């Protein structure tokens, strides 16, 4: 995941009131890294995906994603929210991984990122480290291993 994320794409204690707010703020983080061609198009795609099926995966974690031509370069952004937000009817999220993938790489790249993240999230030690990290470098290190 080394080329997908850097420390500028990690936000600790992100202030957001809603799921849409989280998606928009994290999308801006990706946009600032010049990985999007069309910010609005990407955000719309992620929100459409969420309407079809919320991306909360348990453990207060959500993995929203957009696969579309609005993405220039595959990216992963992470936010630890200051306060939980309601992500689906059943679940709230505190930890959000936002994936951006160009349409051309939709199948392979997207599935690889999801698989790697899912394996990590299943480990209690990983989740505890996300919770306890004080510096973005610590999160980056967790994601690179």
Automatic annotation (TrEMBL):
Q: Name one Pfam family in it.
A: PTS_EIIA_2
List UniProt keywords, sorted A-Z: Phosphoprotein, Phosphotransferase system, Sugar transport, Transferase, Transport
Identify the InterPro entries for this entry: PTrfase/Anion_transptr, PTS_EIIA_type-2_dom, PTS_IIA_fruc, PTS_SugarTrans_NitroReg
Top-tier EC class: transferase
Q: Which residues form the PTS EIIA type-2 domain?
A: 3-145
The answer to keyword Chaperone applying to this record is no
Q: What is its EC number?
A: 2.7.1.202
GO terms of molecular function: transferase activity
- Tagged with keyword Phosphoprotein: yes
Write the protein's name: Fructose PTS transporter subunit IIA
